[in-house]
Amino acid sequence: MNEAHIQKIAGELKIHARQVLATAKLFAEGATVPFIARYRKEATGSLDEVVVTNIRERLTSLADLDSRRESILKSLAERNLLTDELKAAINGAESITELEDIYQPYRPKRRTRATIAREAGLEPLADLLFQHQSTADPLAEALPFVNLEKGVADAAAALAGARDILAERVSDDATARARLRELYWGSGIVKSKVLTDKQEAGAKFKDYFDWSEPVGKIPSHRLLAIRRGETEGFLMMRITPPEESVPPLLEPIFVTGKGPAAEQVRMAVQDSYQRLLGSAIEVELRIESKKQADTEAIRVFAGNLRELLLASALGRKNTLAIDPGFRTGCKIVCLDRQGKLLHNYVIYPTASSSGQVREAASALLDLIKKYEIEAIAIGNGTAGRETETFIRSLKLPPSIPVVMVNESGASIYSASEVARDEFPNQDLTVRGAVSIGRRLMDPLAELVKLDPKSIGVGQYQHDVEQSALKRGLDDVVVSCVNGVGVELNTASKQLLAYVSGLGPALAGNIVAHRDAHGPFKTRAELRAVPRLGDKAFEQAAGFLRIRDGEHPLDASAVHPESYPIVDRMAKDLSCGVKDLLRDAGLRQKIQLPKYVTDSVGLPTLTDILSELAKPGRDPRQKFEVFSFQSGVEKMEDLKPGMKLPGLVTNVTAFGAFVDIGVHQDGLVHVSQLSDKFIKDPAEVVKVSQRVMVTVTEVDLPRKRIALSMKAAPQIGASQTAPRTTSPDGPRPAGGGFNRPTTPDKPKPADWFTEALSRNKSR
Fold first, then answer.
1. Which of 16, 157, 377, 656 could form a disulfide with 321 if both were Cys (CB 3.0 to 4.6 A apart)?
2. Which domain holds residue 131?
3. Structure pTM?
4. Which contacts (CB < 8 Å, 24+ apart) does range 584-587 have?
């Protein structure tokens, strides 16, 4: 372990070095984040998943820094450029940026103007001008360097070449780069302009046709929008500081005298900024600001995904699921309590023929009776509300809940290899209906079969760095799956693949072993699975559950390595483990300090006691049936001022999208989320949250709905409050679509249209 790294991370995270060291050792041994956070609390000092993940990320980044450091040292040594002073500076660099700044003067370069000037023998002249700024006569000093054979025609050409050399030195200077970088971050402005003749084709980026905003303050979604416009060929983007602030910053570093020679140096500094250094720092800022915007976008996406995956589960119920449709009818599937497909059928409950409607009702009632249906799931897509109205008209018993299910990504699942493997003999519509039903029963178990990017809760997900996005989303899925736990005998291989220590190959082996030998009776039988060794068993066993297994603790989160402790507890109380699970009075008699050892402390013992009280408890909230407002099924039913229940479908940096049951999500702009000022919508709402909203405006031709969660929102579009900083900044009360504009600027594109386009592009 690198002691310097351990100390550095401990300082950054404000924890003890021993905690970082213990965590690093566990990672080196192959442990996963969920396993470390759950089952190695004594070693880490009870660090949670967030801190453990941060340690992992910093260990990786510092290892990357060391790798780059070694590469640079090797390159310098091979070219005989490495001095003790340079080596010390490189070894002392604490960031990639600092390291690259030190290496910049020694980096192999293509043939530049400075290279040509050096080949012409002008480097001594550059040295002379720089070292004798107050005394040297530039023209007189340049004359001896005139050489027609080397392309130096006269003194002016010699001075130009010397300035090229000085300009490159300025560009390579670590101090100059650091100061200019700081200026760009502190005062740099992001500017975007529409390209010539692209106004019409790029209308969706109209807000950014003539836009400027400080780079240090621009929200991630706005920067990504501008960059997308640039990538698609409609916008040009620049990041520049105020021009007048650059000379006072750079010149004092290099211009140390007065006189004609100093003026030559000053000219070189100006040329360096305009031709070399400015563009280099701008490129660097473009990259770094993009990374920061990506990080924020991934954070928002990951937060939404976590809420969606941890949405309440109905549980094991015989379920009838419906994938609604008008022309093609509604595809019905009947699933048993394990989600197995029992039957599929098509009905036409929204047909114009009364005979087809009666036939649909009869068929549905027969299926409910035959398969002892306990719940009905209806996809929220086309014809969803109409189908719901039909179902409710059947006056089913209150014990059979009718639930609208968000079907985002269901069509992607139905055409996927996973769905084809599960249902090779069924068509896309059947697979889609099965997915809808299973989402109601257990959202987590079903949604893990999809690429998280297809679930529909991201923002600019195709614009961010894809490997970073995958890492961030995979971490969320792993955290959710292991936090809830996985039923070993019913889980799909896709769900098992996210269990700590497994992965796709072992998950497939587990399913194959289960199919060949029947259900697992104990966790210990996992050891018989091909290629599942001791390390994988250690990492995975605690997160796998066996309902009604031979060992009572196999249904809990108690790790098998702790079974002997529970056995001792039971023995000391002269009872069995099952008695401890049933009898709270017995559990109260357990004296935890009695069981503390060198490797097992109170944190683990406390977790064990909690599991004995509620073995295998599901951390997700209890399922409650949600219903949209009856009689409000399409946009035409909406009126400003209506208060309606809704479900949050996506949270972005500029607001939240809410499904109110009319086939078109409404937008609650960030300014309408609360009576208090908020910067981050996630402070107020989460994906899948149930909310009450007020309709503030409805635009039928453009299919736009403005909503508010304020106590007393203003209704209507005729708002005249002054426009604030940006298309996504605070809006007039009521969230009206129209914004006042200033006479000296063209009217910007409607913020609501832009917001909707962003949501769709996710």
1. 377
2. 113-304
3. 0.84
4. 584/613, 587/612, 587/613
